[in-house]
Amino acid sequence: MNATALFEARGLHMRFGDRVVLENVSLAFPEGQLSGIMGPNGAGKTTCFNVLTGRYRPTRGQVLFRGQDITGLSPHRIARLGVSRSFQLLNLFNDFTAEENVLVALPGLRDHGMNMARDVMADRSLRDRAAAVLDRVGLGAKGGIPARQLPYGDRRALEIGVALAADPAVLFLDEPTSGLGADAIGRLAELVRRLKGEVTIVAIEHDMEFLFGLADTIAVIHWGQVIRHGTPDALRADPWVRNSNLGRLK
Amino acid sequence: MAAALLALENVSKVYTRGWPKRRVTFRIEADLAFDQPAIIGMMGPNGAGKTTLFELMTGSNQPSDGRVLCLGRDIHRVRYDERDRLAIHYHQSYQVRRFRRRVPSFLLERAGSDYPMVHLFDEPQFNTQDGYIGFMLDFFRRLRAEGRLVFVCLHPTARYHIDLLREICDRYLFVADGRVAAAPSFATLTQNDRCRAYLGELAD
């Protein structure tokens, strides 16, 4: 890895009781790149994500952001440093409109205190920023629609919008294609391709095809360990990949 | 001389039933030593004791007799939460460890190692459709190159299972009838009549 790592994990170990969930995982995510993490079900991908984003404190090992040790900081502290994440299962305020979902995620909102709802709707600059975020994720025309009425693919995009509202330096996406049909996956891939380069992205994904088309490098996790790391081209050259369903795709 | 990566010194595990007259329902014995990093293929019929053997090696199942030494340490005398710094057992995709805590942890020894040197893969799911097999095989090779001992336990049901074992394994163990037979190559393994019967047409 030549590019400097914006975000790094060194020797992560995670134990739940007697179970080893992560065993000596080291990863580096270079600035401006899209790094993929893939692996079969139960391999430890989501646990790895939760350790990286501060939800779990690792049993051993370090997490570094811009060279600073952030191991064990709470998720909101990590988020304030410029690390955002989306979730495998959607985390949205369903009764709120798309615009309101983004508004509550804008960092400026904290200054509004108690009367935030009334103040925010009157604050042109905040609403402009929310509109810009919605445009960025392709929901510019749908700001007024309550989240629950949006199609699933749009809700996924909205969730990415919510994560982008804080203008993070790193965006973590946890299985962004989960629950989506082929068309929606295609639109999501377009969105992620547009965002790539604007923000450093780390995506956990079960769908190899999606990652192979977007990632700069991919870490394959199995048995709680990084079993392989490489570019999509290098991974695709593996004879077992070529002979799998994936190899036949193209 | 440095301690062997793993040694099973006259290890046996016996399960019995009945009282007052006890009847042996299951028995496995092993006397094996592994000095060098290697990938060892393990096979044997269902119920032969492959998983029990793995549990004995990782310290999650106490032997009835004998000792299991991992890097020279009796793994059954090491603190429960540090045994995975010596040997770890992966069942299919996840890790299984259920320790019966007989002695408080603080009375036990430290592992003396940060990372496990023995990795036991219990029936890993080799699925030709998902594309992961090559990565898994590369990983086993990398562990060996790092000086570790790797066991791959597989119940071969298809030709490619045999092909991939032959591709990566340095040696084999065949577990049946309460015994563990070691074979230096696949060819010698299939000279064992019991093993030929077990593998059926896959032996040829």
Number of strands of chain B: 11
Strand content of chain B: 25-35%
The helix count of chain B comes to: 5
Radius of gyration of chain A: 19 Å
Unreliable residue runs of chain A:
none
Structurally, the number of domains of chain B stands at 1
* Overall average residue pLDDT of chain A: 88
Beta-strand segment tally of chain A: 10
Oligomerization: heterodimer
Q: Structural class, judged by helices and strands of chain A?
A: alpha/beta
Biggest chain-to-chain interface with counts? A-B, 30 and 30 residues
Specify the helix fraction band of chain A.
25-40%
Give the overall form of chain A: globular
CATH topology of chain B: Rossmann fold
Q: What's the shape of chain B?
A: globular
Which band does the percent of strand residues of chain A land in? Answer: 25-35%
In angstroms, what is the radius of gyration of chain B? 17 Å
Quick summary:
The complex is a heterodimer of chains A (250) and B (204). Chain A is α/β, with parallel strands linked by helices and 250 residues long. Chain A is built from 11 helices and 10 strands.
